[in-house]
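Final report, Chapter 2: Outcomes

The project's central promise was a pipeline that accepts a single protein chain and returns its three-dimensional structure in a standardized token representation, suitable for archiving and comparison. That pipeline is now operational. To close this chapter, we reproduce one record exactly as it appears in the project archive, with the input sequence first and the structure output second.
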Amino acid sequence: MGRPRQRIDGSRAPKGIDMDSQGLAAVQSGTTRALLSAMRPHQWTKNLLVFAALVFAQKFLHLPSVLSVVAGFALFCAASSATYLLNDVCDAERDRAHPRKRFRPVASGALPARTALLVAVLLALVAVAGGLALRGRFGLAVVLYLTLQLAYSFVLKHEAILDVLAIAGGFCLRAYAGAAVIKVPISNWLVICTGLLALFLALAKRRHELLQIDDAASHRRSLAGYSERMLDQMIAVVTAATVMAYALYTMAPETVAKFGTDRLKFTIPFVLYGIFRYLYLAYAKEEGGSPSRHLLTDVPLLVDVLLFAAVAVGLLYFSSHSLTRVSP
């Protein structure tokens, strides 16, 4: 019998286990970890927007509606991960020149491009099929979202202004999908506030990239169409519009009539603080490049979001006016 094979460090492999099998298992494990990383689970927080209609339609305590939205959230996570994988493959060359993105699985070579594309297609098919099975209009929203992301990956992300508008459109589709899956009409106010907030975050991210990356236009072509002054002006406009839109929504006659209370205006300070805190991170701390990361790691911002959610739910579901109002 031949001598037992040895590892590189000189130790012997366990009896009955071939080094080729061990190596294959290690490669597969590494590829799986790389794939999960490329799917960006931390970005799934963006898909929590599908719960907005559930809360503001006052169906948060209706179990069938909650289960439908949870399923919709999972399908949007699959759809968004498919687009992240596609983007990573398309941007691999540029990412290798980026100080942080060069460590992404596809750019670093930890995840083969072919594997990423295959999984992206499978995730997209699951999202579309599942969406259509869950609710027709929800499935249509998923199809429109994936179509928009394809247009973004190959065309829109290279054009200044259109790139951030496309990002905002993706968030609006999430909000629409959340309403569609529980069969409630989408509020115009919800679409407007969602679009403006998404524009604010996207513009702050572009500003961060423009200022923090050497030769930024070589990393993202749309950045050639922006300047620091232009982005500062756009951020100022969108910031003011976001706050005003939400404030007007909370006090609009139709809002008061729908919820049976005018107390939703008490959530305005949380919106103001959240926006001001993000501006502080973007300007004073020179951050703002990853809204999802800030939401999970910046404690003041996270506390503000949780307090906003708690107060909004309390006012909509447990306010004395809401409990005693007569449904139309």
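Archive annotation: The mean pLDDT is 87.
This record, like all others produced under the grant, will remain available to the consortium after the project formally closes.
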